[in-house]
Structures are given as C-alpha cells and as structure tokens.
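User: Could you go from structure to sequence for me? I need the amino acid at each position, not a summary. Structure tokens:
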C-alpha cells in the first residue's frame, strides 16, 4: 500500500539525516519514481520505495544540484540559513523571513 501523504511541503528547507546536504523541496513523488536516471541512486535495498521521495534544489559544501531523496532520510532544517542554489530564483520567491514561496515548475 502506498502512503498518500508527505511529511514535507514544497518550499520547505530540509536536511539529510546523515550527509551534509540541505535543500528546498520543489516536487514530491508519493512513492518511488521508476525513472531510469534515479534508479541507481536509490538502489539501497533497505529503502522503502513506497514512501514519499522529494526533489530538492540541494547544496552540499560548494556544490549545487538536484537531489532525489526518500522521506526517511530527511529532517526539517531549522537553521534559518538560506539555501544557496542557483535555481532558487527560477522556482521560488523568498520573503523577508526567508520563506520560499513556490512560483511554478520549470524542470521536467
């Protein structure tokens, strides 16, 4: 049975439980997407593929990229620090409090 809810919302800043990865959620799959490009990244047999997976505008050190992360590996980021991804302005407006308001989807 596939869960039909997601813990994190579009525009929310999250952090990986283990790795030094932070990002802003810009899309959610309610269960694992069988897209070939993401298959190698998520082949860990311990991952429950029937959980939400999140697309993040992510940063790790000086690198920025799009990450596809299962919900079990994410926690809310309470640092208040902005995410420094070059595509933030394409998808989000950032208000004075640092909240990300989603404008629309540009990635396919």
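Assistant: Here is the amino acid at each position, in order:
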């Amino acid at each position: 049975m596939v869960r039909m809810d997601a813990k994190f919302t579009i525009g929310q800043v999250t952090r990986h439980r283990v790795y030094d990865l932070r990002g802003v959620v810009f899309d959610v799959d309610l269960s694992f997407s069988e897209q070939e490009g993401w298959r190698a990244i998520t082949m860990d047999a311990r991952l429950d593929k029937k959980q939400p997976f999140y697309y993040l505008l992510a940063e790790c050190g000086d690198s920025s990229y799009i990450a596809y992360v299962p919900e079990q590996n994410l926690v809310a980021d309470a640092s208040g620090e902005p995410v420094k991804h070059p595509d933030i302005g394409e998808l989000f407006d950032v208000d004075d409090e640092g909240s990300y308001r989603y404008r629309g989807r540009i990635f396919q």
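One structural detail worth keeping in mind: DSSP finds two helices and seven strands in the chain.
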